[in-house]
Amino acid sequence: MSVWDGLTGQAEAIEVFRAAAADSTLVDSPIAASAMTHSWLITGPPGSGRSNLAYAFATALLSDGTLAGDEVTRRQVAARTHPDLGVLSTEGVIIKIDEVKKIVASSQFSPSVSRYRVMIIEDADRMVERTSNVLLKALEEPPPRTVWILCAPSEADLLPTIRSRVRTVRLRVPDVAAVADLISRRDGVSLDIATRAAREAQSHIGMAHRLATNEEARRRREQTLETALGIRSVSDAVIAAGTLLAVAGDDAKAITEERDAEERESALRSLGIEPGGTIPPALRAQLRTLEEDQKRRATRSLRDGIDRIMVDLLSLYRDILLLQLGAPSEPINLAIMPKLVAVSERTTPSATLATMDAIATARKRIEGNVSPALALEAMLISVAK
């Protein structure tokens, strides 16, 4: 199985990285300047597969070229345990400067078992300027066998000085059919379910996987759309805001709860504590640190859950607007087509556009730390007008 098999809809980007990985040296090769470089930036919309491509490229760089060696490397990279792989991914809203300092220090080591040392920063757009400047120094003078791979939604999300020192590879949004085919093959679901999930996820690979394999996730999405469609008055809007906030909370809890339990169990096991056993006072500080990290992840997960609701609502009103304008485009929410038609007939295109503007405004407000409940109420009141 090739390291590129789990990717879809990115043939051009895969060819770029395949050619770079085929270059056996970083410095001495005559094609190094055109095929390989020491720092990369992978950009693309959420769900386009930025991190998946980054790890596939890392696997190709770290592999020794033998069948057995490639399989071992693939497993190590998937588990993030390869000795020559450094990974920085944040569970918080921003990447902390100490985290970047740590990975920069690690990047100075020589490879231990592979040709390269590969450092991956997911969500590099979450670095503030001061933190980015720490990384900048590492990109300006990297060790000869260290390769940096950054992932971000767009080049504009990074400092110009960072952008000038990386080779950018842009990903596109894969089409629904490609995502559905991947989900069907990889997750063993029917093509019909995979297609609906891919369409409703708007080709977001991770969300399509979740919708295709998790009935509760599908139910929560349906509840979101039903709640919005049921708004007729300001009081309905206020109640709906509370409902959507609860939906986002349930979604975030479902994502983090199982992972939190696994992390705690693993931490206790590593400390030599039996399940249900008493935690010695000297070890409680380590568990408190884990709990604080999990709280930060829960905060980010809730914010991400609210944003997913906003994206689903935008898809709903996008469908309604296209029906009102008579545009020949297949609705994203095809499963509720009769309800879309009913709403499109009783409202106007200008009202639908105003609602979509309100959703965009609410997203900006929440990003600026406005109370999600207040932002959702203000947004949904526009639906009732």
TrEMBL record:
Its EC number is 2.7.7.7. It comes from the Bacteria. Pfam families: DNA_pol3_delta2. GO terms for biological process: DNA-templated DNA replication. InterPro entries: DNA_Rep/Repair_Clamp_Loader, P-loop_NTPase. This is DNA polymerase III subunit delta. The keyword NAD does not apply. GO terms for molecular function: DNA-directed DNA polymerase activity. SUPFAM superfamilies: P-loop containing nucleoside triphosphate hydrolases. Keywords: Nucleotidyltransferase, Transferase.
